[in-house]
Amino acid sequence: MARVLGVIRLSRVSDETTSPERQRRSIQRWADQEGHVVVGWVEDIDVSGAVEPWKRPEFGKWLPSTIGKEVSAIEHRIAVEESRADEYDIICALKIDRLSRRVLHVHALLEWCEKNGKEVATVEDGINLNTQMGKLLLSLIASFAEGELEAIKARAKFSYNHLVKEGRWRGGRTPYGYREEKQETGDGWKLVPDDYGTDTAGTLREIVRRLIAGESANSIAQWLNEDVSKTPTSLDAQMIRNGKTPKGSRWTAANTAKVVRSRCILGQMEVSEEVMVDGEKTTRRRVVRGADGQPLQRAEPLITHEEWELANKKLDENTSKRNGNRKGGSPLLQVAFCTCGEPAYLAPGRNWPYYRCASRTTHKPCPTGSKGIAAHTLEDAVGGLHARHRGSEPRPVGPEGGPRGGPLLQ
């Protein structure tokens, strides 16, 4: 009598032909007929067949993460000990494609099982994987499963493009400033301005207004963080609309600028794609265009194109290399720290650069309320301490007319 691990996988919950209940019954019946006992179940629902078995949420708990990797014996032993690999003798699934739709993944799993005294069994394929012919048939079936995966991806891509061209919302992360609503015809969903409830459309327009008025992304992020329940981030707003408790994530200068730079707020659509630049692979954002070469309009714009261009111009100006902010980087990086313990970073100021607590642009506020200090003031003070330690005084250097002296940190 062997110990059986039953493996169940489903890409979509609505797929009735290979429902979890049917897979479980078939595996249990097979184990009973063979005189084995099922000691555990793996249920990965809404998980693609392209995902490696050892990386799946549930199956991964029973397999070492080093499968298919060139690692030392010690690393592999540690990975085995961290998994539940010693609790079963046979891995059983309804069909090969429930284990994986990738030939390489199936072979890597089978090779690991052979080296570790385990077997792989499938109920409906009827293959004896302990024979050479069985392994050959497994390769053929896995190849067909991989081909079907590519066909599924192609159909999904075609459906996605079709929905975009019709102005319908397919799903996924909702662009900031919008919400999903049922179409009046009842045929699918569409994106509409989120101008009630979480009112992210109103928040977005205020961000743009403040940028055009001359405020920096840093100061706008501070304003947004004054009460994140009224100005939630994109993720929190979506959680609130779905009836879930928000995480209370905070705004930073980076995600504030990212929202404004995206053409999504113009009702258009951007996708990420990998391209080769100077022989290296890199990821870039591309606007989806129609047959006429114009950007596809999938929703009502939240702001005008002129406002979008002006706001982005202001962002570019605020991140320019003026005042020598970026030349040579921050000389006191990981040397100067705020009183709260966070490192101090060099940031642009109205007249000259300042060292500011890193918490100003991260997810948490500074507990001591530390303010910034002029870069030349802090650098001169540190230089003076260093010179006195070496027995000589430095000659002060700094912006013409800049203030001297003052506390190092509040």
From TrEMBL:
Keywords assigned = DNA recombination, DNA-binding
User: Looking at the record's lineage, which domain of life comes first?
Assistant: Bacteria
InterPro entries (UniProt xref): DNA_bind_recomb_sf, DNA_bind_recombinase_dom, Resolv_N, Resolvase-like_N_sf, SSR_resolvase
Domain Recombinase: residue ranges = 175-321
Q: Where is the composition biased (Gly residues)?
A: 399-410
Q: Which residues does the annotated region (Disordered) include? A: 384-410
Task: Output the Pfam families linked to this UniProt entry.
Answer: Recombinase (PF07508), Resolvase (PF00239)
PANTHER family reported in the protein's UniProt record:
DNA-INVERTASE FROM LAMBDOID PROPHAGE, SERINE RECOMBINASE PINE-RELATED
Protein known as? Recombinase family protein
